[in-house]
Every structure is written in structure tokens, then in C-alpha cells.
Amino acid sequence: MAKGDRVNLAHTTVLLIDDQPTSLDMLGSIVQGFGCKEQIKCASAQAAVELLARRAVDLILIDCIMPDMDGYEFVRWLRRDAPTPTRYVPVIMILGHASQAKVQQGRDCGASFVVAKPLSPSLLLKRIIWLGAEDRDFVEAEHYVGPDRRVRNYGPPAGTDGRRESDLSGELGAAVEENMDQDDIDMLLKPMKVSL
Amino acid sequence: MTKPTIRKVHTSLQRQMARPGGRLIVEAESRANQALEGQRDHVFDLLATNIDAIDALCVSRPDDAPTQIYAFASAMVDMAGYLDVPAFFEAAFSLCEIADRMRAADAWSWPSIEVHVRVLRLTLADGGKATPGSERLLEGLRALTAHVPPAG
User: Fold this and answer.
1) Helix axis angle, B110-125 relative to B40-60, nearest 10°?
2) Fewer CB within 10 A of the end CB, N or C, for chain A?
3) Interface pTM (ipTM) of the complex?
């Protein structure tokens, strides 16, 4: 982004959800600094569910870890059960510390971004600007509903210049092979020392 | 199994952000930082209160102390995570991590908690900044945490 670039959130309503009042106020201060038209604060995900039944918002910022309904459950509800177009609203989940069990649950919940603390206003604004500019498909499958997670591997559309052999297809179909087990997946992601 | 569907969605956020106007990005960031700075003293007071509460639990050691300590530490991570206090943030995060690991392994160690409390106090008193001194303290916390296997 260039120094002279602008961001226009003057028409945007943001929903902030966090059970910690001080964190909620701090997040509200950041959003106010960005120049958002309106911010609505909810101290629980359940309160947010009730609010979204009555009115629309343009962006949701939610803490991952909350008692009762946590951020992950909220996003799953939003993507599967909320009315249209609310179910498509971009969601940024904000993660402090998550116990290992919660991290497992959080995979594939359907958030647009998960950002970990420490979180600077600069980074949060970059993510919002990305959401405002991106054209990311919305996927509805049996086990996942949310923005297309293959965004980095998609490449240009088929038949156009610039596609790489490794770019994925936009077409989803039924799986043709057995699912990999978790150990295989972990091995693919694990950094390994090699001798050169 | 139902066939997955992919649809193009143009969100209201995209429509609104595409409108002309708004403020310079540097200005938006600067205003947000200023607003956070205005809350800094209040948040530091709350962080100190949480450290006191954990300290008190180290003395009274009730049965549910591990759960309470994790909750206090997690609240500190949440608050400190919006401020530029890297050393304090890492100490608070380390307390969350070790409390989570020790609960899961059923291997609770009060000295490990007490060491974290001391480091939290020292780094908070130093404004949460990363300094050579705080780095040495954090090295100690990393070594402590490494002794407990990760949960899960």
C-alpha cells in the first residue's frame, strides 16, 4: 500500500464480539480510529446471534475464545444457519491463547481470517482492506461452509495465461481417494532438516 | 453426499469500501494507535490487578486454581495483545501455555507459576518493553515450558 492510499469505512457497520469488556473497548477504539460509520458491541456470541436476526452488519470482528458459544461455534452458525446475506459477511477472528483442544476445533470453521495477538491496528487494517478488495468464492460443502480456503493456490481461471501446473481447479467434486490421516498431513507441514 | 457449490459473493463491505472518500491509511492507523494509547494506563492497572489475583491463588491454592489462573492469564493476553508490550505479552502467553500443558498432563507445578508471576511483575514494571534483561527472563520461561509436553 502506498502512503497516499485511502481506506473508506465511513459507510461500514462493524459488529465487535468479545466477552472481555476491556478487550472489547480496545477493539472499539481501533475501529473508531479507522473511521467506521457504526460499531455495535456484543459481550457474547449468543447476543450477536440475536442481533443478527434483527439487523445487518458489514463486517464482524470476534474473539475466538469465549464461554458458552465461542467464536468458532458462532462462525459455524453464521455460515450455515444465518439468513442470507448475513451468512456471507466477512469475519475476522482474533486469537489470544487457545488451548490445543480449541485449536483443533477452530480448523475449518469458515472465518475469512484468523489473526493472532499481538495485533497492531496496522495489521488489522491490512486484513480489512484485503477483505474489501478480494473476490473470493464462497464454498458450501457438507463439511465446510465459508470463503474458499484455496485462495493462495487458485491461480488465474482455467484457459487463461499464467496458470501454473500446480494451480487448483475451481471445480469441486466428490473425493476419489481415501482421506489422508492426520499423521500424513502433519508430516507434510512439519519443517524437516535436510543435508545438502 | 450433496455436491459442493461455489458461488461468487460481492459483500456489502466490498461495495462500501469501493466508494470514493475515506481517510488516508496512515491517518487511520495513527488515530487507532492514539485511541489505544489513551487506554494504556487503565489497562496497565488491570494487568497489575490480574497479577495480584494470580499471586493470591499461589498462596491459597484452591482446587480450581489451575482453571482460575488460566482464565486470568488469558485475560491478560487478550488485553496486552492490543498494546505494544512484547515482553509482557510473551510472559502472559507463556503462563497460559504452561498452565494449559500442566493441566492436561496432570503435572501442576506451583514454582513454575510463581516464576511466571515474578517475570510478569518485572516486565510490566518495565513498560512491557523488550530489553536484554527481559529477554533473559523470557529465556527462563521458555525453558520451563519446554519441560512440559504440549497438550493434546
Assistant:
1) 160
2) C
3) 0.92
